[in-house]
Amino acid sequence: MYLSRFLSIHALWVTVSSVMQPYPLVWGHYDVCKTQIYTEEGKVWDYMACQPESTDMTKYLKVKLDPPDITCGDPPETFCAMGNPYMCNNECDASTPELAHPPELMFDFEGRHPSTFWQSATWKDYPKPLQVNITLSWSKTIELTDNIVITFESGRPDQMILEKSLDYGRTWQPYQYYATDCLDAFHMDPKSVKDLSQHTVLEIICTEEYSTGYMTNSKIIHFEIKDRFAFFAGPWLRNMASLYGQLDTTKKLRDFFTVTDLRIRLLRPAVGEIFVDELHLARYFYAISDIKVHGRCKCNLHATVCVYDNSKLTCECEHNTTGPDCGKCKKNYQGRPWSPGSYLPIPKGTANTCIPSISSIGTNVCDNELLHCQNGGTCYNNVRCLCPAAYTGILCEKLRCEEAGSCGSDSGQGAPPPGSPALLLLTAMLGTASPLLV
Asked: EGF-like domain: which residues (predicted)?
């Protein structure tokens, strides 16, 4: 008995280990922006690419409906139950909390019974189209990390478009079309994400997978983020180095998964038949019980923290960067052009830190051509000079004992060399050949 139990536990552990083992080897967590390392000079900062954790982004959005009076209940109206479309004694009344279905119920905690949901007015104005735009706005650039999932309490719509904006709603591009008949609705051949490939992953498709009338077990619509990731990272997303490499080098791919706003365009409710039943128009409406959007603040790999303050998301920028997305170098740290961090090489990436500006010397703190570190110092990543123990300063131009006021004949350190190395360097760069007076 004990042997069989041990073997079962061992088998389970082997299975779990085999599943988990590849992840530490290929995933870069990017949850630390810098760490201290020890060098001959002492402790210095080692910088690396970093990003906030993925989270439920619906906690931070603002929702807008167009037309604004499309929510049911004002005035009160009756509608038909989904299980029996001819039992039309359900009521929506905005003035009664138990009977109201406001937009915020698309984002509340799920799991209650009965479920809570937003609901539109019914199609009482048929044949005028019943159309609704639901706009989700973050006032911040975010990167999507998981599937967008919309759960309908009504039948899934016969026609719908999911759109995205990268400029805070000024312009919109389609993400995906949904229809019971793609050719009829949008003049597009039906496809699914499985029909795509690495080379066509950015193609905008129309799918018929998620538009099926009144089936009670078919309430969900997906926009498949992870399936698109899998074209580069494999079906279990184990080869993230490949995906990160593509995101680093292909701006269009990176932008595809980046949004400031999403818009759900509901164009035709679930009819379920060829013809609309004009005698029972209370059957036709939209109702959404849940919307899931997982992602992270876009901080250009220069921050691990994104704070929500005064109804606004902002990156807490590292690497001497600043801005809502850490999209520029801080003042006095513009020694080289700003650049986003890089995921590569795995697992730490490259920080591309902004470096101090020294306008009188040049764009770099030091290099091995014009901006030499003095007195035996060595240049570290063009960011700083690593000085011998006896020297300090930006270019190792000062004796350490000078700062302590202990230089002397018995200090073991000679007097400082005549002239200022920084001024000598500036003179040389300006082409001045005359000796510097001291």
From this structure: 362-397
Predicted confidence at residue 364, as pLDDT, reads: 66
Same domain, 100 and 225: yes
Q: What is the DSSP letter of 19?
A: H
Instruction: Name the token pair of 267.
Output: 């164009």
Pick the closest to residue 151 from 89, 90, 196, 108 (CA basis): 108
Write the Ramachandran bin of 419: left for phi over 0, alpha for psi from -120 to 50, otherwise beta.
left
Q: Is pLDDT at 16 greater than 70 in this prediction? A: no
- Assess whether 124 and 69 both reside in one domain: yes
Nearest to 153, CA basis, from 94, 90, 97: 90
For the stretch 319-378, pLDDT in tens is: 999 999 999 999 989 988 999 999 988 888 999 999 988 753 465 677 666 567 888 888
pLDDT tens readout for residues 71-104:
999 999 999 876 666 788 889 999 999 999 999 9
Helix axes 240-249, 226-233, angle to 10 degrees: 100
Mark whether 44 and 136 lie in a shared domain: no
Residues 391 and 336 in one domain: no
Distance CA 234, CA 391 (A): 53
User: Can you give 67-123 as a three-state secondary structure string?
Assistant: CCCCECCCCCEEECCCCCCCCCCEEECCCCHHHCCCHHHHCCCCCCCCCCCEEECCC
pTM for the whole thing?
Answer: 0.75
49 CB-contact burial (10 Å; exposed 0-12 / middle 13-18 / buried 19+) = buried
Cβ contacts of residue 317 below 8 Å, gap of 6+? 299, 302, 303, 323, 326
Other beta carbons within 10 Å of 44: 14
Expressed as residue numbers, the domain containing 131 is 58-147+155-293
